[in-house]
Design goal:
The chain is an alpha+beta fold. The protein contains seven helices and 16 strands.
């Protein structure tokens, strides 16, 4: 497949961006807004608990080897059992308390959460492979985190809860032990601190038009992602806060998702603050197998044709903002795994200027942030927190 240069990709994306909302006037005509109330925002991928790619890869490998449908399902089930065991080992109830401590200490006004997992289980139904119908709740990450935030003395309200991928798989060991169906439902969530003075005046949640789909034994699993936003009033200022999580396994898909956010979620009459796990490293020019664009393409599109500013770079150099990524077991002995930056706070203003930043730091990236008893980190990602002015 022919691979396009980054320049060609961005030129094509700019041509396609005819629907991005822009201000009625030009930058020269715009009247500067008053400084406005400072607002602290955070993006936090809280980690679903294991590598969800393992079961998919096991099944696809078995298919490629010409195995029977029954053998493919067995490969899927055994890998699912392994994955689900790791979810228990990465112990979200422990990690949630670490995350709650982070958030309660920083007290962001708004938080964009990604990988907010709901793990459920049910009876093994080999005649309904891929049908998401298990109902027994094993772990509810959102309920756990909200309870821990309240216990930490800093309650938050989930303003928008967006359901994303909802996938189910048979699960058992190689000896048919522990038979069950395992269901994972992913969510993106916008939290608002319950005691701040922000007023939410509107909200929206939307699945992307282009998502990863995987066919296993005649069943298509849809790994849907999406975006969400709230319109917020703070004193005399209004802005839009957008949260999203782009596709990790394809930069082609991630670029399409970035374009949809830019065209559909960017406000035409106010500043837009966009937080995300964008799965796009600004410094990585490599192209994934089966992709046509480099890893950095979604980032370059957002900060180029789409008109967004990378607000972390208004505060500190890129190398002080590494956010990803630790090992699957999140029990790393050091912070060396934080070696690139894909968790972003971006802003789109009506006159194209950056917002002012007077406070910023990375959370959950120090060895002292680990749980002392288990050695677990809060997540395989670090969080980004910025206090913004100049709405």
């Amino acid at each position: 497949m022919r691979r396009l240069s980054t320049r060609a990709v961005l030129a094509a994306a700019a041509a396609a961006l005819v629907a991005v909302p822009m201000a009625a006037g030009t930058a020269a005509q715009a009247t500067p807004a008053p400084p406005g109330k400072p607002i602290t925002v955070m993006t936090r991928n809280i980690y679903l608990g294991a590598d969800i790619n393992r079961p998919v890869e096991a099944a696809l490998t078995a298919q490629a080897q010409g195995k029977t449908p029954q053998e493919v399902v067995a490969a899927l089930a055994i890998a699912t059992d392994q994955t689900r065991r790791i979810v228990d080992e990465t112990n979200f109830p422990v990690r949630s308390k670490l995350l709650a401590r982070e958030i309660a200490t920083a007290k962001p006004d708004l938080v964009g959460l990604q990988e907010v997992a709901l793990w459920r289980s049910g009876p093994l139904e080999l005649d309904k492979v891929g049908v998401p119908n298990a109902t027994t709740v094993d772990q509810d990450f959102l309920a756990t985190l909200l309870a821990d935030l309240t216990a930490a003395g800093t309650p938050y309200v989930a303003e928008v809860v967006g359901e994303r991928a909802d996938v189910e798989s048979p699960s058992f060991t190689a000896t048919m032990g522990n038979p069950r169906d395992v269901r994972l439902t992913m969510h993106d969530v916008i939290l608002k601190r319950a005691t701040n003075a922000l007023t939410v005046t509107g909200e929206h949640d939307q699945l992307f038009a282009h998502n990863l789909k995987v066919a296993i034994s005649g069943v298509t699993m849809d790994f849907s992602r999406g975006y969400q936003w709230v319109d917020v009033r703070a004193g005399g200022s209004s802005f839009r806060f957008v949260n999203s999580h782009f596709e990790a396994f394809s930069s082609d898909l991630a670029l399409a998702q970035a374009m949809q956010v830019a065209t559909e979620a960017t406000a035409s009459d106010r500043t837009t603050v966009f937080v995300c796990d964008c799965n796009s490293d600004p410094l990585l020019e490599a192209v994934k197998p089966h992709d046509t664009v480099p890893h950095q393409a979604p980032y370059e599109f957002l900060t180029g044709p789409a008109g967004y500013t990378d607000q972390w770079l208004e505060w500190a150099p890129a190398e002080q903002g590494w956010t990803a990524g630790l090992s699957e077991h999140v029990n790393d002995d050091s912070a060396a795994g934080f070696d690139h930056r894909i968790d972003l706070v971006l802003a789109h203003t009506l006159d194209g200027r950056p917002l002012d930043v007077d406070r910023g730091f990375i959370t959950g990236d120090e060895v002292t942030d680990r749980d002392p008893a288990t050695g677990l980190w809060p997540s395989d990602h670090a969080g980004v927190l910025l206090r913004l002015r100049g709405w």
